[in-house]
Predict the structure.
Amino acid sequence: MITILAIESSCDDTSAAVIQDGMLLSNVTANQDVHKKYGGVVPELASRAHQANIVPAVDTALKDAGVSVSDIDAVAFTRGPGLLGSLLVGVSFAKGFALANDIPLIEVNHLHGHISALFLKEKGVPHTDPEFPFLTLLVSGGHSQIIKVNDFFEKEIIGETIDDAAGEAFDKTAKILGLPYPGGPLIDKYAKLGNPQRFKFSRPKVGDTDFSFSGLKTAILYFIRDEHKKNPNFVKENLYDICASVQYTIVDILTEKLKNAIKQTGIKEIAVAGGVSANSGLRERLRKEAKANGWTLHIPDFKFTTDNAAMIGITAYHKFLRKEFAGQDITAEARLKNM
Ligand code: KG4
Ligand code: ZN
């Protein structure tokens, strides 16, 4: 039996999970509310909150899993990409835990983790793994990519954003509208009540499978500024329609690019991952497209879309099987590539 304790601390969620033989036993996440009033994550505050949260999160994860420290065979952590100060808390904790218990250390790339979330299994919950090769639309607060996943450790980037990530498009729009951070979930909520066809925004001109969201952000900013001049209550009176229209535009761009990648590769085994895959508009649209076009669609359980340690744990389990361990000299890397 292989039991792994996993830590995720790359941004503003402190998360700990226990995975046993590839089966998730527990997953505990402490969210940080301190960033809400600043309209974005404040790195300094995030690192401090991780320090306060990490030991209680691990304690709870072990308790929920019904295992003790002596049952743990390896400890895994997110090495990057992410905020350096945040990553350092997880890396340092994991190193200390590995040393104290004389167990191996496993480093995980956060983005690899988001993709691995598609393979998470819980007792009593039906689940189907995607079949290799499959295409993943990986959309989070920091990344937007279309990735061809050839096997657990071999991936090719088919397309990516040339500027902002999809999550940033949601969060920056929310900020323009005066909504608190993170804006994605709120836009999603209000979009359900609005008319997605009410306002039209122009589409970026980039490669067939690449994204660009900074132009959309500027278009929304100017649009709101101009309407606000005519009616100071414009946002308040039209919030639901604005959210629905913006969400429709982002989802439509993501879907169109994914379709181009499908055409290019001929692959119809499709998955979506990352925080933005929690978006109900995107989930619904992809389900519809899958049905109409004969794709097999894999969407992670809602709780595994945004940052969590379970996805780090399942990646680490596969690394454990390959005996890919890290040394005590490993460092956190804010811009880690090599997925
Ligand atoms: O994967 P994640 O938790 O962190 C990163 O690795 O970046 O993604 C966070 C992003 C944020 O931009 C957040 O606004 C977005 O995911 N997000 C959503 C929704 N839930 C989270 N965006 C749209 N709709 C949602 N329901
Ligand atoms: Zn993430």
